[in-house]
Structure formats: structure tokens, C-alpha cells
Design goal:
- The chain has 361 residues and is α/β, with parallel strands linked by helices.
- Helices cover 37% and strands 19% of the residues.
- It has 11 helices and 15 strands.
- The strands form 4 sheets. A 7-stranded mixed sheet has the order 3-2-1-6-7-14-15, with helices on both faces. Strands 9-10-8-13 form a 4-stranded parallel sheet, with helices on both faces. Strands 4-5 form a two-stranded antiparallel ribbon.
- A hairpin with a 5-residue loop joins strand 4 (85-86) and strand 5.
- The longest helix has 22 residues, at 154-175.
- The termini are far apart.
Length: 361
């Protein structure tokens, strides 16, 4: 491996809180410890497709304000597969060589890619094709990257969902209503389960546990029999109908995305129990806002660790968090396992121990 002089960093996939803390950490450590140049690539791989590439030089004197900023100031994208990139004329084209050319044009010796399992898989394939020295950092509010106990963005998203449930609690009690809160998480129920426990939900529905609507309604009736005429229901967006159908909505550009299961659950509850129900879909509010102290800390830790991996020449690896410390895992191994909620795990046992209905009681 040649001497490292200049590294690039990009954020890819959906945004989340804590990304700017990573960028700040990388800049401080790479420049302050190793004397490298750091180039921020804008709009992920799409920025590298441009000629010249969309990128800015990052310096220690202009990045400290990033620590408490949400989102990613470099910009990101979760559209347009570079191996079949949609062109303006309606055709698709493989743009990977354009991305590799952009990396070369910037004179980079290594690249730090911050993304979830999908983004890291794409970045790894491009890196292998172009001989790019890649190091990965996991970020996803869904917390579904299997090789790490926690990913950047999850803690903030869980805090926001918990706060939303806290706020719904008082209006539910005031009006004797059943409040249904639908949260993100893709195909994993980590946000719903953690925030549901933390926010005092009476019922939590996650995609990993098939439910019976009658069990949900029985929990509500039991509370009503005790004079508790309100109820808090937490629902993860990927929960299916009782018949096993996915609930999705067609978004812009013709993409199908999860959304609407909260409305379905609320309608079923209202029909079967007569309870007045209301639905709140938290949506992208979970992605935005000021990062939690833990996401700032985790972002800082991951940034330093990623720079050290480059210094060690340990490429094609991802930084991960296990047993209260950072480790490195081959990216191929890191994205191989999709981390869903473990049915015999601590949080499921905790929820049941607290008397929370998980829909299959």
C-alpha cells in the first residue's frame, strides 16, 4: 500500500442524526493525527458521477459546528442504482466507471463510506471493481446491520419515537382514546419495541411477531374493565394485516414504501371495541432534528476508528460496536446478516414481563 495523503468521505442512503458527527471526527483525526487531506464528496456516488466531481475540502477550523447538526451537510441519495442508473432519456446505464473516474480525479488514496447494508453493498462492489480502498461505517435508524450492536441514527430515532408516545399519552387520557403511533424501521421492529417500552405503550406490534387483532382488542377491553379507557398502541411500519398483506403506498417516482398499517390497525380496533381511535404516523420526523448525545458519541468513536483502519491498511472492513468497544468486520460479513428483533431476546422478554401486549398473547 502506498502512503496515504488524501482521503474522501461520503454519506449514502437515507439521512439520519449523527452523520455530521462522523464527518467532524474523521476530519479532526485524519488531519490532526496523520496530516492527511480530507475531501467531502457531495450527494454520495452521484457526486462522483459529475465531471468535475462534486466535492469540497474539509478543514478542522470549519467543522466543529457540525457536531449538533442533524442530517448530513454533504448531502446524500437513496435513489438511482449506479449499476443501472436512470438517464434523462429514459434509458438506464451502468455508471460505475464514472464513479471510479471521479474517485481518481479527486486523487484519493482511500474512501470512507457511511451507509446501511444496501449502500455498503453497492460501495463495496464499486470498490472491488475500481480498486478503491474502502472503509465502511454503519448508519441506519432501523438498526438492522447485523455485525454491529447499534448503528448511527438509531438512538435519536428511538428518542423521538419515545417522546412522541409521551406526548400522545396525555391527550389519550384526556379524551379516553386509543392512540396508534406508526413508526419507521423497515422490516425490523427495533424502534417500535425500544420506544414502546420506553414510552409506556400498552400494545407493541412488530413485523417479527405475527399478531391476532382479537388479542389486541382484548388488551384494550381489559384496560377498559379496570376503568382505564385509553390505550397506547405502537406499530412498526412493516407490520402486515392480519391476513398477511403488506401495507404500502406508492410514492413519487413510482416507488412503493411502507405506510398505512397504523390506519388499518386503528380501524380494526374501532370496529371491534367501539373505542375512539386516532392515528399518528411519525414518518421522517424520526430522521431529523438534533442528534442525541449517544449518536454524537458513537459518530465520534466510529470516525476515529475508521481513520485508524485506513492508517493500518485494513480496507474492505466496516467499523462496528460490540461489547462496549469498536471492532472491525469485513464488509461482506457485516452486511450478510440482517438484524431483526430476536424473539427470545431481552427486550421481548422485558415487554412481556411488563404486561405489554405483543399481539400474540
Amino acid at each position: 500500500m502506498g502512503e496515504i495523503k488524501r482521503i474522501g468521505i461520503l454519506t449514502s442512503g437515507g439521512d439520519c442524526a449523527g452523520l455530521n458527527a462522523v464527518i467532524r471526527s474523521v476530519v479532526h483525526h485524519a488531519i490532526g493525527t496523520y496530516g492527511w487531506e480530507v475531501i467531502g464528496i457531495q450527494e454520495a456516488t452521484q457526486g462522483l458521477m459529475e465531471n468535475p466531481p462534486k466535492a469540497i475540502a474539509l478543514h478542522r477550523d470549519n467543522i466543529d459546528h457540525l457536531l449538533m447538526m442533524g442530517g448530513t451537510f454533504l448531502g446524500t441519495t437513496n435513489k438511482g442504482n449506479p449499476f443501472a442508473f436512470p438517464m434523462a432519456d429514459g434509458t438506464v446505464r451502468d455508471r460505475t466507471e464514472d464513479i471510479i473516474a471521479g474517485y481518481r480525479q479527486l486523487g484519493l488514496d482511500a474512501l470512507i463510506g457511511i451507509g446501511g447494508d444496501g449502500s455498503l453493498a453497492i460501495l463495496r462492489r464499486i470498490a472491488q471493481q475500481g480498486g478503491i480502498n474502502l472503509v465502511g461505517i454503519p448508519k441506519t435508524i432501523d438498526n438492522d446491520v447485523g455485525a454491529t450492536e447499534i448503528s448511527i441514527g438509531f438512538d435519536t430515532a428511538t428518542n423521538i419515537a419515545t417522546e412522541a408516545l409521551d406526548r400522545l399519552h396525555f391527550t389519550a387520557a384526556s379524551h379516553n382514546r386509543v392512540m396508534v403511533l406508526e413508526v419507521m424501521g423497515r422490516d425490523a421492529g427495533h424502534i417500535a419495541l425500544a420506544a414502546g417500552i420506553g414510552g409506556g405503550a400498552d400494545i407493541i406490534l412488530i413485523p417479527e411477531i405475527p399478531y391476532r387483532i382479537e388479542s389486541v382488542c382484548n388488551k384494550i377491553r381489559q384496560r377498559q374493565a379496570k376503568g382505564k379507557n385509553f390505550c397506547l398502541v405502537m406499530v412498526s411500519e412493516a407490520v402486515r394485516t392480519e391476513l398477511g398483506d403488506q401495507v404500502k403506498q406508492i410514492q413519487q417516482f413510482g416507488e412503493d414504501r411502507y405506510g398505512g398499517i397504523g390506519k388499518y390497525i386503528a380501524e380494526q380496533i374501532a370496529q371491534r371495541t367501539g373505542a375512539e381511535t386516532r392515528v399518528t404516523v411519525l414518518g421522517h420526523i424520526q430522521r431529523g432534528g438534533i442528534p442525541s448525545p449517544f449518536d454524537r458519541l458513537l459518530g465520534s468513536v466510529f470516525g476515529v476508528a475508521a481513520v485508524d483502519l485506513i492508517a493500518e491498511g485494513k480496507f474492505d472492513h466496516m467499523v462496528a460496536w460490540r461489547n462496549r468497544q469498536t471492532i472491525s468486520v469485513p464488509i461482506e460479513e457485516a452486511i450478510q446478516t440482517y438484524q431483526t428483533v430476536q424473539l427470545d431476546g431481552t427486550l421481548v422478554k422485558t415487554a412481556r414481563g411488563l404486561g405489554i401486549c405483543l399481539g400474540n398473547d
